[in-house]
Amino acid sequence: MFRSARWHTRNGYVVEYEWDEKAGADAMAHAFEVIAKAEAHPSGRLFGMVCPAQIDTCSEGLIKESYAEAGRRGLRWQIHAAQSTVEFHEITRRHGVSPIQWLEKLDVLGSTSIVGHAIFLDDYPRNAWHSRRDLDLLAETGTTVAHCPTVFMRRGIALRDFGRYRRAGVNIGLGTDTYPHNMLEEMRNAAYVARLMAESPRTLSTTDLFEAATDAGARALGRSDIGRLAVDCKADLVLVDLAHPMMQPRRDPVRSLIYAAAERAVDRVYVDGRLVVNGGEVLTIDYPAAARRLHEAQKRTEAAAPRNDWAGRPVTDYSPLTFPEAGHRTSGARS
Predict the structure, then answer these.
(1) Which residues pair with 79 in a beta bridge?
(2) Cα separation of 63 and 112, whole Å?
(3) How far apart are CA 131 and CA 133, in angstroms?
(4) Which of 62, 148, 154, 159 could lock 175 by a disulfide, CB 3.0 to 4.6 Å apart?
């Protein structure tokens, strides 16, 4: 990803932007170099996507130039937009239109474009905006929405709603965007959040959900060789143990997998015909060692966090432990 500005806060509630358009252009040039290296990889499994980071941190020039270059190279183009209230009102302040409508004015919506999240459309209740065009624009232009429910659920934010976007004709695919990167959990959360926001259990079907996680995602990437089981497609297979207790009863195995078993019932995984998971165990990396490295990395990040926080706070001030343990004190704790 690349961008023309970074955002920060000096007081904890006002968002400010620090612009450096040359740095953004340089980062974009570097991104295209990385994409070229990925495409040259002997595995044949890697490809690139052009990603100006967020609509509020990219200049008009960076957005338009990156989209044009993506078109010349036959690459997909992706940007984060309509992902927060702050961003929505920042774009309306700058340009007088919603984030989605500004992208339309820049002529960068289309079948090769992916908008990350697209939650805060012009008809989202908390935006209190006057127009009602965004959802139709996404559908009419063939733009894909990348829906990542879990990361927003944690913040009390939800798309309104998955079924409504589908019925409007929007190609909507699923992503993770947060730890754990678990597509089965994302599918379950997408279903629950959609039904909650729509106040109806019938706003989407499990078939809709499965299609979003497979074929709709492949369409977003311009790929016809993944996302489905068919002749000439990649042999990417997930084999599920139907005898697993969490897969019972077996009347509808897909529902059992999504709403109950999740990864616990995954037995084998093949990528392009190569066995990479067997008996539920990952074969390509030392998974326990990777988990230990993750734990150590979190400790380093936590120790460094006060230097990067606007108020110099320890992490426990704004992300307290469920139950305080010895050695962890908040700044206001007394001995």
Answers:
(1) 115
(2) 14
(3) 6
(4) 148
pLDDT tens per residue, range 54-79: 999 999 999 999 999 999 999 999 99
Q: What is the pTM of this model?
A: 0.92
Please say if the pLDDT value at position 328 is more than 80. no
Over the range 91-110, which residues count as b (16 or more CB within 10 Å of their CB) and which as e?
bbeeeebbbbbbbbeeebbe
- As beta bridge partners, residue 8 has 16
Cα 311 → chain centroid: 29
| Measured distance CA(273)–CA(281) in Å, rounded | 17
Closest by CA to 102, choosing from 112, 118, 111, is 118
Backbone dihedral region of 215: left (phi > 0), alpha (psi from -120 to 50 degrees) or beta?
A: alpha
One-letter amino acid of 231: V
The average confidence (pLDDT) of the chain is 94
Phi-psi region of 332 (alpha: psi -120 to 50; beta: other; left: phi over 0): alpha
Is residue 110 within 8 A of residue 103, CB to CB? The reply is no
Q: Which two tokens stand for residue 266?
A: 């995954």
